Amino acid sequence: MISKDVLEILGLIIQVLLAIFALWYTIETRNLRRHSMKQLAVLQRQHLVAVSPFLLVGLRPKAELVKELETEPAKVLNVSADQVEETAKRELSRLRAHDGNLYFCNISNPTSKIALQVDAFVYDSSTKNFTTSGSTIVVVAEKEDQQLVVGAGPLSQQEAIDAAQSEYPELGSKAAELLNYNSRSYLLVLFRDIEQAGYAIKREFEMDSDQECGMFTSRLHAL
């Protein structure tokens, strides 16, 4: 017959073994979860690379374009030589008649994936106002360059957020993070990939004394 002391020792050993097993199981489960999350992140990254274009975006304010049309119209206008002077006069008249901020957003797609429903917003840190394109580019095909005119405004922050969310409902609270008040002015370009996933490219800029636009590094955000 097993004594009471032996039974107590066996019970204690069993409890210790169960505790060790529970600790091992917890650690292994945590490691497995971390490994799964890493694999999921890799798969998401691979999917992002597979379907998402990366757009190169730039900005030219009205003053910069007016200056180029006055000094080097042939360089700016894609028309025949005999039409440069007349076209430059017409474009200058149109630009000077526009009150408020007016920007020309250059969008280049160097990838082999298409971008859909491209929209743009500009934040002016000097006035704390927003300007939007008011319309979208339906498709920017692979290896294609397009231009989007950004001149609808001025808008308050909430008006800009509402305009962005009307086209991109999935923005949610992220709209306020992207369309924020900032110490620098910035360009925000929204677009979708072929599977309708949304993205945002944000690029800060500064205007120099000659009203020329100096752009900083752009950042891509998945919506």
Provide a short characterization of the protein structure.
41% of the residues lie in helices and 31% in strands. It has 223 residues and is an alpha+beta fold.
| Total count of strands | 10
| Alpha-beta classification | alpha+beta
Uncertain residue ranges: none
The biggest beta sheet reads: 7 strands, antiparallel
Shape annotation: elongated
Spatial gap, N to C terminus: 70 Å
Order of helices and strands: HEHHHEEEEEEHHEEE
Q: β content, as a range? A: 25-35%
Count of separate DSSP helical elements = 6
Average predicted local confidence, pLDDT: 80
Multimerization state: single chain
Q: How helical, in percent, are the residues?
A: 40-55%
Radius of gyration: 28 Å
Produce the secondary structure layout.
Layout: H1 4-51, E1 56-61, H2 62-71, H3 73-76, H4 84-97, E2 103-109, E3 115-124, E4 129-132, E5 137-140, E6 144-150, E7 152-155, H5 157-167, H6 174-178, E8 185-192, E9 198-207, E10 213-222
Helix pairs in contact: 2-4
Verbal overview:
The structure is a single chain. The chain is of the alpha+beta class and about 220 residues long. About 40% of the residues lie in helices and about 30% in strands. Strands 3, 4, 5, 7, 8, 9 and 10 form a seven-stranded antiparallel β-sheet that branches. Helix 2 packs antiparallel against helix 4. The relative contact order is 0.13.
